[in-house]
Write a structure and sequence with these properties.
single chain, about 220 residues, alpha/beta, seven-stranded parallel β-sheet, 9 strands, about 40% helix, about 20% strand, binds NADP nicotinamide-adenine-dinucleotide phosphate
Length: about 220
């Protein structure tokens, strides 16, 4: 399977990249980033791109892929709706729209989050925007499209969040992972499980197009 990955420098994306590079199912990964990363691997190729609202310049590089794992995203904390929507909705739809046109046989996996509002009309800003993003992606002519809605993700394998305040938060909460897992098993998953579940749905599909946290954990093994 040939995979395109967005958000490879982030916490979720690092985990997904790691699982892709380890998996025999994945033959190659094209990572689209805004800043060059340090990682080198025979299966990995990176494109540094400046404008995530427009992929016209690199379209020639984006054909012939089986799956896209879209892990780019920001926390809505302290953001105005317009700015959050720009990164969340506009970037995802710019990438997805381009890829659906260039790769009609592609499976697209979008990372949203637990509590996403499928009506796209609720009062919680982030949930509404993520819901609108999911719905717009589902309209595109992919072979299949899925929304992953993880709740708490435990970073494994030395992975840390990209955002400074999230790094600080995880330094406190991550050591308590066994407690979270025991108390809230349906609301806890790991970067490994997210990555493995993405490869699984890209290969075999899933019963529904929205995968909640417990579905991700079950599929991720
Ligand atoms: N972490 C969790 O527990 C969790 C739980 C549920 C859902 N999620 C969702 O998962 C997604 C990823 O979260 P994360 O925890 O991996 O976040 P993260 O560690 O902060 O990583 C964010 C990723 O998005 C990229 N990105 C952010 N703003 C960008 C921009 N303006 N232009 C280009 N790239 C940009 C970052 O690239 P740079 O390195 O260039 O900044 C990085 O690769 C988000 O949609 C989040 O809502 C996360």
């Amino acid at each position: 399977m040939k995979v395109i990955l967005f958000g490879a420098s982030g916490m979720v994306g690092q985990g997904v990249l790691r699982e892709c590079l380890r998996s025999n199912e994945v033959g190659s990964v094209l990572s689209v980033v805004r800043r060059a990363g340090r990682q080198q691997h025979p299966k990995l190729r990176e494109i540094v791109h400046g404008d995530f609202a427009d992929f016209f310049e690199i379209e020639g590089e984006l054909t012939g892929y089986d799956a896209c794992f879209f892990c780019l995203g920001v926390s809505s904390l302290g953001m105005k709706e317009r700015d959050y929507r720009w990164v969340t909705y506009e970037f995802a739809l710019a990438a997805a729209g381009t890829l659906a046109r260039l790769n009609p046989g592609m499976t697209f996996v979008y990372v949203s989050g637990a509590g996403t509002d499928s009506t796209g009309r609720g009062t919680t800003m982030w949930a509404r925007v993520k819901g609108q993003t999911e719905n717009a992606i589902f309209e595109l002519p992919f072979k299949a499209a899925y929304a992953f809605r993880p709740a708490y993700i435990q970073p494994l394998d030395g992975i840390v969040p990209r955002t400074a305040w999230l790094r600080a938060l995880y330094a406190v909460v991550a050591p308590l992972y066994p407690v979270w897992k025991a108390l809230f098993p349906n609301y806890v998953t790991t970067t490994e499980q997210v990555g493995r579940a993405m490869i699984h749905v890209a290969r075999d599909g899933a019963p529904g197009r929205v995968l909640e946290n417990r579905d991700i954990s079950a599929m991720g093994g």
